[in-house]
Amino acid sequence: ILWGMSLDMVGEDTKKTGGTFLIEKMPDPSAIWTRGEDKHSEWGAGDVSEKDLFPHYYNDFIMNICKTQGKFANWTVNFNPFEGGSDHTPFLKNQIPGLLMWHFTDVFYHTDNDRIDKVSATTMKNVGVSALTAAYTLITADENTATATVNQVKSDALKRLNTEFELSKKAIADGKPLKDEKHIIEVWGKYYVDALATIKPLKDEKHIIEVWGKYYVDALATINSMAVEPKTTRVGSTIKVATLAVEKQTQDYLNALK
Fold first, then answer.
1. Helix axis angle, 58-73 relative to 121-139, nearest 10°?
2. Which helix (H) or strand (E) holds 20?
3. Does the pTM of the predicted model rise above 0.85?
4. To which H or E segment does residue 101 belong?
5. How many CB atoms sit inside 10 A of residue 73's CB?
6. Cα four-point dihedral sign 27, 31, 33, 34
7. Which of 150, 160, 134, 140 is nearest to 249 (CA)?
8. For residues 225 and 57, is the Cβ–Cβ distance under 8 A?
9. CB-neighbour burial class of residue 183 (10 A; exposed 0-12, middle 13-18, buried 19+)
10. What's the rounded mean pLDDT across residues 57-83?
11. Which residue has the higher pLDDT, 11 or 248?
12. Which of 9, 50, 96, 223 has the fewest CB atoms within 10 Å of its CB?
């Protein structure tokens, strides 16, 4: 198993049920420092510490596919920090990237009125298109896919670092300790550097065969990287450039906080 995706309470008519479509991210620093536009659902925050963070390209990869479909179909897509409690959690506990597509708050959740009349064909289509696009893209990934993902994660990383920098500047101006605010920036920077490192091609097709062989022998094989057949060193070089950019931006923001 390379990736996990839980589709929980998706495809309903949110005009009737309330709430919006949500993507619950794998544990990232927003689950620890929830501020700015980040907010938890009414389900409530989970107990997340720095040791629980799960840096991976999968968060931004899925979010960007859903945002693209949302823009195309005029479909509202929102996100929440990790909370836990659904079927994506077992994947994470086994070090497999996994996230949750759901919606909340739903006034009919776990009641007798949660019936077929609450289903929306349009919403079901949007969720299905997003989930299947993500799955097909991942299982057919090549170097172009990996390179595009590196560039997307890099862009998301730099945007997030800028957001956190501005929030930290305001927090310091409001009297928060400089040391604490710098630590938040450092954790976000490291998170994205580590996430970029997960976008790696498999060594060769022989390795895939070896992995499948091991899987059927002992049922233990898992791969935490995008399945890519490398033809050049372009992906590795792109990851290195993106990593350096994130590290540099992190340090620049740390130096600018006073």
1. 140
2. strand 20-24
3. no
4. strand 98-104
5. 15
6. positive
7. 160
8. no
9. middle
10. 97
11. 11
12. 50
223 within 8 A of 249, measured Cβ to Cβ: no
pLDDT digits (tens, 9 = 90+) for 161-207: 999 999 999 999 999 999 999 999 999 999 999 999 999 753 333 34
Q: Could you tell me the two tokens for 42? A: 């009414």
Q: Rounded to an integer, what distance in angstroms lies between the CA atom of residue 223 and that of residue 211?
A: 9
Owner of token pair 């979010």:
63
Closest among 176, 148, 181, 224 to 29, alpha carbons compared: 181
Backbone angles phi, psi at 12, to 5 degrees: -95, 165
Name the range with the highest mean pLDDT among 158-172, 229-243, 244-258.
158-172
Tokens of 60: 């931004």
The one-character DSSP state at 9 is: S
CA dist list (Å): 34 to 56, 93, 117, 207, 213: 19, 22, 35, 41, 43
**Residue extents of the structural domains in the chain:** 4-139, 143-256
Q: What is the pLDDT of residue 204?
A: 36
Percent of the chain with pLDDT over 70: 87
Question: Do you find a cis peptide bond into 123, omega within 30 degrees of 0?
Answer: no
Distance of CA 165 to the CA centre of its chain: 21
Mutual angle of helices 178-196 and 143-173, in 10-degree steps:
180
Instruction: Compute φ and ψ for 105, nearest 5 degrees.
Output: -85, 145
Are 92 and 26 in contact by the 8 Å Cβ rule? The answer is yes
> What is the CATH code for 4-139?
3.40.630.10
